[in-house]
Amino acid sequence: MRSGRRKAAKDVKQEEEVSKEVAEAPAPAPASAPAAAPLPPKEEPPPTAGGGGRERDRGRKRAREAEESAPPVICPIALVAGHPSAGAGFNDGHPTAAQFRGPMGIALAPSGHLLVCDSDNRRLRRLVPLVTQTGPPAPPAAPGDENRAGLRGGGDDGVAVVPGAFAKVGTLAGSSRPGTRDGLGRDAEFLDPCGVVVTPAGDAFVIDAAAHTVRRVSAAGEVRTIAGGGKPGFADGAGGAAAFSSPGGIALGPDGTLFIADTGNHRIRAMSQEGAVRTFCGTGTPATETRSGIGCPTLPHPLRYGSSQAR
Asked: Disordered: where is this region (predicted)?
């Protein structure tokens, strides 16, 4: 009996000591949130074949960033003449009833007329701009601003041309007869009119590729051959002494010089508006490699254009 009481008292004492140790022990630190995993290192794109891959990739990245930050470009397209279901043919009149056959070159005249080389119909077609009454008299446009305003004032009567809108399609020069005859309007003939440009004075210069000539057409429709002898060849000179071989495009320089793509001769020719032709660029040999830039080996002379010079 006595030994049992001593054992019970000993057990109680041990429990009290354990409780005291637990109470005096420091409290454990509160559990913290697990640390975030470190981000993987940024990898450089592998170099591409040919070396300089990283530079090119960085350049592409900058180009993409510039493209993404650029404002959207909206280019509306509207049918101004012809009809999708009309097919090829020839018909003057209202723009939606007009027909063309193989239209090629196109140019806008200062008057607002649109000239079209209707190649397979052998005609130079003219789209007449839509004219509207704007109400009060409009101030005259400043020189060189004729096509920049939404409506171009036509004088004290307040008449204006609506850009991009046309009232009818007509024939300025040419007929169904193939030929090279000069003349007025439908009395003139073309073989393959394919390129056109209009000067500020309103004269049109037309490339007649199959005739190997350049024709001048006045605003009244008077056609005159100003360069080329009617046969393929190559020669600098004036008027009929000059020779082309299937010329194609034509462009007007700021000083009034005409530049002609002499396709068959593999050259660019320069021509005055009076018909004096010279070779501007090209050797006549088809290129076997691409060369670009002013001063390329194909230039036969130092290039002087505007205020810039290259030798």
From this structure: 1-70, 289-311
Instruction: Please tell me the distance from the alpha carbon of residue 292 to that of residue 297, in angstroms, as a whole number.
Output: 10
**Which pLDDT value is given to residue 94?**
83
Read off the pLDDT of residues 119-177 as tens digits, 9 standing for 90 and up. Answer: 999 999 998 887 765 555 444 444 444 333 233 333 444 445 555 678 788 899 999 89
Mean pLDDT of 66-73: 56
Query: Taking the C-alpha atoms of 242, 274, 104 and 192 in order, what is their torsion angle to the nearest 10 degrees?
Result: -50
Asked if residue 103 lies in contact with residue 118, where contact means CB atoms within 8 angstroms, the answer is yes
Ordered structural domains, the chain, with CATH:
103-288+296-310 (2.40.10.500)
CA distances from 121 to 87, 100, 118, 174 (A): 13, 7, 6, 9
Q: How far apart are alpha carbons 111 and 61 in whole angstroms?
A: 46
- CB-based burial label for 29 (10 Å; 0-12, 13-18, 19+): exposed
Residue 83 dihedral angles phi and psi, to the nearest 5°? -140, 135
pLDDT at 87: 72
